[in-house]
Amino acid sequence: MSYALNNFTGGEFGERLRYRVDLAKYRSGCRVMENFFPMPWGGVENRPGMVYLAPARSTGKILLIPFQFNVEQAYLIEATDQAFRFFRDGELLSGHITTPYSADELEDLCWTQSNDVLFLAHPNHPPAMLSRITTTSFRYETITGHSAYRAPFMDENSDGITLTASISSSGATAQITASDELFVSAMEGALIRWSSPITGNAINETFTGDATGEKVLRVRGSWTLTTGGSFVGTLHLERSEDGETFSAYRSYTVNAERSLNDTGYCEDRVYFRLRFSGWQDPPEGTLYECRAALSMEAYEDYGILSVNKVTDSTHAEALVVEELPATTTESWSFSAWDGCHGFPALVQFYSGDRLVFARTAAEPTRVWLSAVGDYLNYEAGTNADEAMLLTIKTGNGQGGVTGNAISFLGNRKELVIGSWAEIGSLKPKDESNPLAPDNKQYMPETSPGGAEFPPLPINDVLLFVRRGGENLMELSYNYMTDGYQAPDLTILRPEILSEGGGIKALALVQLPYPVVYCLRHDGVLASFTYNRSEEVTAWARQVTDGVVESIAVLQDPSGYDKVYLAVRRGSRLNIEELSRRDDGDTCSGIWLDAAKRFSFEEAVSQVTATHLAGLTVSAVADGIVYPGLVVSGSGVVTLPEEAKEITVGLPYVSTLETLPLEIMQAPESTFSDSKKNSSVLLKYYRSAGGSLRNSGSSKEHDLVFRRAADLANGPIELKTGTSKVVLPDRFDWERSVIAVQRDPFPMTILGLVNDLEAY
Question: Is the pTM of this model over 0.90?
């Protein structure tokens, strides 16, 4: 019987499913798919090589971060112990910048980007900004140290502890006394928001000539100005930030027949006073006077202190950053982000133009959203565009509430919030209006929860890692149930992540077709070709002679995204780039790892690749393969023949093994039959080299692609077509076909038609 396989979009199957012939994806699945990519249109192609770019700055722990301003201006950030370096178009830019992140802290770094600013979050350090200053230079600065930063604060004291300050003036150093034990040494550097009610909420001035009012009104929020009497001239409302230096704010020119009634709003605390100019004396026998009243509703005013030194549990020294409204208060709160209470571990954007931080050591279920368009403003307010905060009641997935910390943030139409047991969404309660402090709700959506990995947005879904790090899940909206669902994408290959110790990092390639890279803790890349609309969900494994430590993807205008890798090869740590697959007619691509390419006008027999010193490599020289070359201790590679176009690197093997060739279609089944596969008709596309064998034999049958038109011992053109390979075989209970590519050339398999016999 003819057993045709022309679709491999089922990817690798798990060993526990290798006999599930009844599954729809069985005929498109494989037992082994190593260093092959299943393509969304059915076939498979072996992966291209990895091109060596540079040695890492150090051989310790490393993290690669993408910095994508646009498709033309993209940078790779190499983060190592307390330093960032930058690559552009594969070239290392000169110099580095210093950061506070030690090598052991890099795995907890979280980031998101807005144009040319990368926002960084880490639980041990203040949130920060990495800004691109020029096309070749960057600046690192903390958000908390920026002049425009407005700090978030914890909930107000509820323990009845009273604080007393020795002085309230801005810029002064105050001695702070607590009525009960409060201070610990870790609070040095923390802020204290010092609140007190303002009840004197009006001033009145009477003018009978040009003069400046004697009274000052401390204002925050809405204010009202009214006048009475008859007068001619100009009344000035003057404003001050510090209560001492005033400048013009609003002016009202009035004749004897009109009085004033004006209102306004001050988001920040300011000071107002009144002044009159251009006074005109009244006609004889008439009384002129301007009776002005400036008022506002009573409000809770505040000042800010920065703790410099903790003397003991009830005494501290602090700088008055903003003037205190009173010297004693019971209404105070500590800053939410500081060395004592922790710093936010997560950062993400919300589609309503807010920057979102979440989870500190002291408040593991709290979320802070910036003011709209003002990413450094976290002073919570009540207006729709002001900053807001909320505490998420994370569920246990069974209707109960737990204290599980927030594990990830995702940006969709709503803000997706994951915890270990549950995933929910933050959205407007009234969806006809934007998210606001008085128009927000958190809704539990689905369980199980997610691990601490930023989810990957693909079209209308989010891919996230389930708690434990061994399952990739798909969070999607189900219009039939009006809710979210989260199917397991590893269901057909349940061991794909666990056998490597779970997921270490995630990255997404969108072009030429979507591939999700799941970097495992053992350094293997589990690749997942994903196209939900065409039901393509295929796992494969990409391995190399080394351990992949980190991965990052940058978009590129060529239509091929660039994949960058930090690869540990022995004692060396390299920065490498996955080569772009060359779809030309000749073997012009790179199919070796840690590869370096040389081009000369005159033929040479030696090249130098110091990063390969002491290793055994292969070389492709003018299209001819020379395997088993030993690189000298100084990095010199000596070729048997001279050549002009030379690529040297580490060889790797690409292997594809089908699932057992079984048929289960009533009334027929081959499960109980003995089988043999005597020949295979191979359908291939732009390929060279490779071999086929049956699972019952160790003998590989080389695929011959060279034709009479090809030059002897010279470069060969890639071939597209059909080849029949005879595979001597004997009957046995199980048969599968194995395709192997050991040569540094491309191999694309479109179909395998097997001559299967069963009895």
Answer: no
